[in-house]
Amino acid sequence: MLPWTGLITALTLLLYLFITINVGRARAKYKVLPPQMTGNPDFERVVRVQQNTLEQTVFFLPALWLFSLYLSPFWGAGIGAVWLIGRIVYAWGYYQAAEKRMIGFGISSLSGIVLLLGSLLGIIRSLVQ
Question: Residue 70 in contact with residue 122, Cβ under 8 Å?
Fold first, then answer.
């Protein structure tokens, strides 16, 4: 069942790659040359999507794998898929307007917390046995 966890991991990396490419495209579109990170608000939202997704991915991937290893790879991948959908909704909303990011942020944050808490339960259960 770990191939499903691997698939979610690969799709997460693919999403991050796509979001990173969007930053490069936004730089050209809004004429924000490196090393500048500010300027056009539309560009800044694209950058925030990338930065926040990176921050959340650092939290998500270990939680995904720990949950999958100590509790259930099937449920880990399922909850991970929800996290991915949340990140897509987050990006799509934030690209339009900052206030439209909250639903996606909530979905991905909640699913990430479920993965972390489930991981802790699985690890404690393993230690007790």
Answer: yes
